[in-house]
Write a structure and sequence with these properties.
Layout: H1 2-15, H2 21-38, H3 43-70, H4 98-123, H5 126-139, H6 154-175, H7 180-201, H8 205-210, H9 216-220, H10 222-242, H11 260-273, H12 281-308, H13 317-341, H14 344-350
Helix pairs in contact: 2-3, 2-6, 2-7, 2-12, 2-13, 3-4, 3-5, 3-6, 4-5, 5-6, 6-7, 7-10, 7-12, 10-11, 11-12, 12-13, 12-14
Length: 352
Amino acid sequence: MPTRHKRLASWWQAFRFHYVPPSFLPAMLGGVIAWAYTGSFHFLSFFLTVLGVTLNHIALNLSDDYFDYRQSVDLAKDSEKNQYSGGSGTLTAGLLIPGHIRKAYVCFYLSTIFIGLALTIFRGWPVLIFGAFGVACAYFYTAPPIRYGYHGFGEISQLLNFSLTIGLGSYFVQAQHLSWEAAVGVLPLGFLMFSMITINAIPDRAIDKAGRKRTLVVIFGAQAAVLFYGLGLVCAYLIILLAPLVCLASYWIYLSLLSFPLAWQAFQILKRNYTDSQKMAPANALTIQVHNLTGNLLILAYLFHGIQNKPGLDPAVGPILLLLVIFNLPVWLTVFFHVLAIKPGERTIAGG
């Protein structure tokens, strides 16, 4: 039994589920925006959309581990690594076999494709375009022959895919058309994802460079990466601030500004400690929390907007909140325990 538990724990580690919210949160947000503005809500389609992007992100995490391992990237010892950077460490530690990882990501990608085809049949051919583009970007992030993540395009791809591709795709599944309101609503999550992948690449810059993985951090250096990180945060919160003023969102989205103090704290920690991968770890953890909190607050904001404009309590609200809790719960537990795992000295740094 202990062996089985250890194996399950290794697979959970490989899934890196605490990095999956950048997929399911914009998917939920896009669907909720469609409901808030059009009143259209199809629960099964909503659930399949969220499930599909979640499986695709797990497949991305697994294939990223597999191809980085084959390229001799992310081979630092655990004691030398920032726990929030690099891959899962399951291959480098010998916890899982590369062939098993390969079979797993193939299964996850195939499941995603099956869900995408089903949604295409029932919700229209544009879904196929969003889905095919999302799967291709996930796989070829590190897979040959494209490996665009090795050529300086990874961060921009994450910005666009984890906002517009997923969010607008989900919006279309519900509303059957696209809108500027939906694009503006999901875009802050893309910029926060840009900041997240940037900060996570800082501790890996030497190993990435040795493995010829040219991230923006490798190309421009760690000091410039701190500026890129801050720019991503600024763009995210500027969109939130300005959208209601130009009638592209309701003032309810100002709820998501509650995450700003955490973002500011993370930036300050990073600015002081970007040369020390261990001391900057609290900033990595805070960035995960900022994205998660902002995404959930945006979803709640659009739910409040929809409720405000509808007589009575719409029956869609209950299922949406239920799915929000179900998909978030493992993330909240994982992030919570990761924060508890930070050494006391590091937690002091996180406290400013």
